[in-house]
Structure formats: C-alpha cells, structure tokens
C-alpha cells in the first residue's frame, strides 16, 4: 500500500488535538505560530516537543532562538489560533512577565530553553526543556478533522 500525503492527512485528522501558539522574541519583537503538533516528551527532565514545517516563517526564528514559549489555547481563543495560522487579524495580548512572552488568558503556558533540534522530513522537531510554567481552569481549544471542536461535559 502506498501512503499518499492526502491519505496521511485524512487519517491523522481523526486524532483530536489541542491547539497551541508557539512564541519567540527576536530583537524585541514577539512572533507566534499556531501549532497542534505539540506533545510532552519527558517528566524528568520536563521536555516538550513542537513540530514545525521547514516552510514556516517560525522555522527560521526557532532555529536561531535559544528559548521559546508555548501557550495552550482556551476554547475562547479560536480567533488567536486563526491569527497565528495566517487567517484573521486578532490583536494578541502578550504576557511579558514570562520570557519569552506567551499569550495572556490561555489555559496553560510553558517557557522553554531549546534542548535539542532534529530534522524530520519536511519538518523540524524542536524539543524544549521547560523552565517555568503555569495554568488556569478552562476548556481547551480542540481541533479535529480540520475544524475547531467543543468538548462535551461529562
């Protein structure tokens, strides 16, 4: 069986994922990118991974950054997800008490030092060691089969 990009995308689209915004600060300017290809790697040390397309603007920024932030988006932040995916014009509110800045009002955030970088096909895997983090209550922004979804209580 030949695995085509369309079949691969259609199959993996059936995996429910949360939505994050990955951020870096370069020369005083904060940049962000929507990412659903995010996961925890290790508890000890605390490591996370984000997969970034080599064609993405954020790829070059992460390649030179020593640190990156991750905001776990809440269900009310779909407009920000769209903004950082290149659709829409939401006005992000950055929490600058965290370095690098993360989005305000997410349900969680992590500040990471770049731990390792691995080439993986048309993407690069950026592994970050979590140095600080925080969270709040709320519903996550979920993504399934190319659309945002709401989680049902219970």
What does this structure look like?
With 154 residues, the protein is mainly beta. The protein has a domain at 32-134: Pnp Oxidase, Chain A (Roll). Helices cover 15% and strands 45% of the residues. Strands 3-2-6-9-10-5-4 form a seven-stranded antiparallel sheet. A three-stranded antiparallel sheet has the order 1-11-12, with no helix packed on it. 28% of the residues are buried.
Tell me the layout of helices and strands.
Layout: H1 5-12, E1 17-18, E2 20-26, E3 29-35, E4 38-42, E5 47-53, H2 57-64, E6 67-72, H3 78-84, E7 94-95, E8 102-103, E9 108-120, E10 123-135, E11 142-144, E12 147-149
Antiparallel strand pairs: 1-11, 2-3, 2-6, 4-5, 5-10, 6-9, 7-8, 9-10, 11-12
Q: What's the β-strand tally?
A: 12
Q: What is the arithmetic mean of pLDDT?
A: 94
Report the CATH C-level class of the domain at 32-134: Mainly Beta
Gross geometry: globular
Supply Rg.
15 Å
Contiguous helical run count: 3
Proportion of residues in β-strands: over 45%
Features:
three-stranded antiparallel sheet, seven-stranded antiparallel sheet, 45% strand, 3 helices, 12 strands, Pnp Oxidase, Chain A, 154 residues, mainly beta
Task: Describe the structure in brief.
The chain has helices at residues 5-12, 57-64, 78-84; strands spanning 17-18, 20-26, 29-35, 38-42, 47-53, 67-72, 94-95, 102-103, 108-120, 123-135, 142-144, 147-149. With 154 residues, the chain is mostly beta strands.
